[in-house]
Design goal:
alpha/beta, Rossmann fold, Argininosuccinate synthetase, chain A, domain 2, 3 domains, five-stranded parallel β-sheet, 13 helices, 42% helix
Length: 400
C-alpha cells in the first residue's frame, strides 16, 4: 500500500508519517508543496527522510498559487466576513492539486493529511481531492487515532525517537505561505488575550514602522496586477515585492473571530501585507472603470463567492461559474492606483486609467459646465419620490 502524505515537517505530520507506516504497514511518500513558506522546506525534507518516508517530493507551487488562486480571488475582491483575505483557504486547492499529481505519479490510491477534525482544512483538502479523483481513499489520522492533542503527539514522538527539529513551538500554531501567515491555537484561543510580543514575522509593529510615509503605485490589466512602481513583475515577484513594502510599514494585520464551516467560532490572527495593498489598489482602479450597477452586483455576489472558497469548494461548479462572471467584469479594470503607506495604514491617494476611465471631470465638477443640466434633477427626484409621496399622503390622511 502506498500513501502520499501532505507533509509540512511540523509536529503533526511528522507523527502522522510514522503512525501511518506502523498502523497501515504502508509505504509513505511525503509530499511537500512549496507555496512560499520559506526556509522550513529544506529542513522538512531532511526530517521526512529521518522519520521513514520512502521518498520526499518538494514541488514549487508558488507561481501556480499566485496565478491560479491569489489573483482570481483578488479580481473578485474576495474577503471572508469582511476581514479575512483567505491566505490559508486559497493555498489549499493548489496543494491538493499537487498532492493528486503526486499520487498519480507514484501509483498511490491513498492520500493522507494532518488536518484536525475540528478545522476547515480537512474539508478543503478532501473536497478538492474528491473533485479531482472521485475514488481516492483518504486517511485522516486525527479522526482515527486516540491522541487528543499536541501533548499526546509530543509524547508519541519522544517514545518513537522522532526528530522534531522542524516542529512549531507549542505556544500557538502557524501556517505561512506567499500570501500570508496565520496564527491560531494556544494562547490565542482566549479571544481577550492579545497576540504575544514578537509573534508577527511578516510585518513590523506599526509603532516601530518608519516615521516617513512611503508611496507605491500598482498597475492592473483586466483586474490582474502586473507592475509595481512602473516595473513589470511576474506574479510571485510582485506579491513578494508588495509583502516587503507593506510589511515594512506594518500594513496587513488582522485579528478576528471567524465562523468556521463546521459551525464553531475560532480566533485567527493574520498578517497579509502585500495582498492588503493589492485589495486597496484594485478597488481604487475599479472605482473609476466599472459601471455602477455592475460594480454593485459584483459586490453583492462577493460574500457568497468568498464563502464558497472558505468552505473548500474551489473546484465546484458554482465557484467556476461565479469566477467567470467576476473575470468578465474585470475586462475594463485597466489602470493604476497610488497608495500611501504609513504606520500600519494603506490609504489611496490617486487612481487613473488612460483607456477605460468612466470618471469625467466635466460632469463631476462643481464649477460651471456645458455638459450637465442641473434642472434635469428636478424630474428625476420627483419620480423617485412618487411612491414615498403616495405613502406619506396616505399616512397623513389616516392620522399617523
Amino acid at each position: 500500500m502506498k500513501v502520499v502524505l501532505a507533509y509540512s515537517g511540523g509536529l503533526d505530520t511528522s507523527v502522522i508519517l510514522h503512525w501511518i507506516r506502523e498502523q497501515y504497514d504502508a509505504e509513505v511518500i511525503a509530499y511537500m508543496a512549496d507555496v512560499g513558506q520559506g526556509g522550513e522546506v529544506e529542513q522538512a525534507r531532511q526530517a521526512a527522510l529521518e522519520t521513514g518516508a520512502s521518498e520526499i517530493v518538494v514541488e514549487d507551487l508558488r507561481e501556480e498559487f499566485a496565478r491560479d488562486c491569489i489573483f482570481p480571488a483578488l479580481r473578485a475582491n474576495a474577503v471572508y466576513e469582511w476581514y479575512y483575505l483567505m491566505g490559508t483557504a486559497l493555498a489549499r486547492p493548489v496543494i491538493a492539486r499537487g498532492l493528486m499529481r503526486a499520487a498519480e505519479r507514484f501509483g498511490a490510491e491513498t492520500i493522507a493529511h494532518g488536518a484536525t477534525g475540528k478545522g476547515n482544512d480537512q474539508i478543503r483538502f478532501e473536497l478538492a481531492a474528491y473533485a479531482l479523483k472521485p475514488n481516492i481513499r483518504i486517511i485522516a489520522p486525527w479522526r482515527e487515532w486516540d491522541m487528543k492533542g499536541r501533548s499526546d503527539l509530543v509524547a508519541y514522538a519522544h517514545e518513537h525517537g522522532l526528530n522534531l527539529a522542524a516542529a512549531p513551538k507549542p505556544e500557538y500554531s502557524m501556517d505561512a505561505n506567499l500570501m500570508h501567515i496565520s496564527y491560531e491555537g494556544g494562547i490565542l484561543e482566549d479571544p481577550w488575550a492579545g497576540p504575544p510580543e514578537g509573534m508577527f514575522r511578516m510585518t513590523t509593529d506599526p509603532e516601530d514602522a518608519p516615521d516617513e510615509p512611503e508611496h507605491v503605485t500598482i498597475r492592473f490589466e483586466k483586474g490582474t496586477p502586473v507592475a509595481v512602481n512602473g516595473r513589470e513583475l511576474a506574479p510571485v515577484e510582485l506579491v513578494s515585492e508588495l509583502n516587503a513594502l507593506g510589511g515594512r510599514h506594518g500594513v496587513g494585520r488582522v485579528d478576528i473571530v471567524e465562523n468556521r464551516f463546521l459551525g464553531m467560532k475560532s480566533r485567527g490572527v493574520y498578517e497579509t501585507p502585500g495582498c492588503t495593498l493589492l485589495l486597496h489598489a484594485h478597488r481604487a482602479v475599479e472605482s473609476i472603470t466599472l459601471d455602477r450597477e455592475v460594480q454593485h452586483l459584483r459586490d453583492e455576489l462577493m460574500p457568497r463567492f468568498s464563502e464558497i472558497i472558505y468552505n473548500g469548494l474551489w473546484f465546484s461548479p458554482e465557484r467556476e461559474a461565479l469566477q467567470s462572471f467576476m473575470d468578465s467584469v474585470q475586462e475594463r479594470v485597466n489602470g493604476e492606483a497610488r497608495l500611501k503607506l504609513y504606520k500600519g495604514n494603506a490609504s489611496v491617494e490617486g487612481r487613473r486609467s488612460d483607456t477605460h476611465t468612466l470618471y469625467d471631470e466635466k460632469i463631476a465638477t462643481f464649477e460651471a459646465d456645458d455638459v450637465y443640466d442641473q434642472s434635469d434633477a428636478t424630474g428625476f427626484i420627483r419620480l423617485r419620490a412618487l411612491r414615498l409621496r403616495t405613502l406619506g399622503a396616505k399616512r397623513i390622511s389616516e392620522g399617523e
